[in-house]
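Many groups now describe folds with learned vocabularies. In that spirit, our science desk offers one protein's residues alongside their backbone shape tokens.
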Amino acid sequence: MPIAIMSAMSEENAALVEAMTISDTVETGQRIYHRGTLWNQDVVVVFSHWGKVAAASTVTYLIANMKVSEVIFTGVAGAVDRGLKVGDVVIGSNLYQHDMDARPIIRRHEIPLLGQIALPSDEHRRQLLLTATQRFLATGITLSLPRETIDEFSLHSPQAVVAGIASGDQFISRKAAVQDLRERLPDVACVEMEGAAVAQVCLEFDIPFSVVRTISDSADEAAGVDFPKFIQLVARKYSLGILENLFAS
């Protein structure tokens, strides 16, 4: 059975599709699912679309119709941990839905009927992804990116960490919101809009999953990065390089 490679950004997806040997393509639900091989690994590659509902819809189709054995989800995120900077990478340990709040019926952040707040990723794949990411950041980044791009985004000595990731249907862009998130979910390192929804579906279907996020901004008013340019020049190269180090090593 293939491994699903979901990308939260269309640019990342396009880079992966370009690197694939494609054997089949399925168009449905306004998605294009590419089946084939990446570095001799049997995969299905797809752009998840943005937000929790879109990502949940995509991964449900992958599990039910494409019969994938595992899900790896790449994308970008805003830093919540003050120690992270643009170009660092977070491999998710636990995934949280920061906008889930069914109080007083259940605890804040608890997923109804699952009885869980933290949704753990696959530990084995998590460690393999950490090693692959560290290898890419140590040697592959200078081969994948021109010096002017590295200098423009200050991609000097980027780090990879394993930490919590929070997801919600909100674009976090205020310092007060970031501080509130730190207080509610103290082990969260970054925030995005899809990962925890994918985690919930995978757990319900007993499918191992992992989430890898490149830090694109500081999730507050201080973020000064040209986001579209970062996605096109950096994030798509990161996803490709990390997965190549994962599968081709």
The radius of gyration is 17 Å.
